[in-house]
Amino acid sequence: MKPLLMSSSNSVEVESDPYSVAQTIALMALGRRAKSRGELFTLLKKRGIEEEVANAVLFRLQEQGFINDYEFARYWSESRQRTKKVSKRIIAGELRSKGISDEIIEWITSDITDDSEFSNAMQFAERKVRSVRSLAPEVAYRRMHGALSRRGFSGHIVTRVLAELGVTRN
């Protein structure tokens, strides 16, 4: 195994053990924002850390409470619903791409009710409808429907929201 080199502030190369390098990389990444175990594993692999070292570091960080995929997923879900007004389908896809297990995703998304999805869709649509009021009804309907669909809301929620806002095709 080739020793990893770390540069210090005075530009002198210092040999370091791979475990310390991996731990430093992971802790620096966690300092910027919370990350899932999968995100950190991908980062460590991208930075040239061997798989067994990466797993050892991540296991230790998990034991110490620095990594908790369930808490990360719960926070991510709440944040995305609050700020971006996206559906549970979009949230599940984002969590899956961050390496969260399907079991945790199921737990997190099961907490999102149809009523809360409708509420999120309605809040988003109320903001969006202002920008399409001056357009022809067909164009306004198409844009609103597309915007809600891209946010991952189901057809029946989209239809219900548009009906409540009075956005029709004609």
CATH class identity of the largest domain: Mainly Alpha
Main sheet specs:
2 strands, antiparallel
Return the average pLDDT rounded to an integer. Answer: 90
Strand content: under 5%
Helical run tally: 9
N-to-C SSE string, H for helix and E for strand: EEHHHHHHHHH
Structural class: mainly alpha
DSSP summary, beta strand count: 2
Assign an overall shape: elongated
Domain module tally: 3
C-alpha-based Rg, rounded: 22 Å
**First and last CA, distance:** 69 Å
Helix content: 55-70%
Biggest sheet, strands in spatial order?
1-2
CATH architecture of the largest domain: Orthogonal Bundle
What do we call the CATH topology of the largest domain? Arc Repressor Mutant, subunit A
Uncertain residue segments: 7-14
Short description:
The chain has helices at residues 18-32, 37-46, 51-63, 69-83, 88-97, 102-110, 114-132, 137-150, 155-165, and strands spanning 4-7, 13-16.
Architecture overview:
- With 170 residues, this protein is mainly α.
- The protein folds into three domains: 4-63, Orthogonal Bundle (Arc Repressor Mutant, subunit A), CATH 1.10.10; 69-110; 114-165, Arc Repressor Mutant, subunit A.
- It is built from nine helices and two strands.
- The protein has helices at residues 18-32, 37-46, 51-63, 69-83, 88-97, 102-110, 114-132, 137-150, 155-165; strands at residues 4-7, 13-16.
- The chain is elongated.
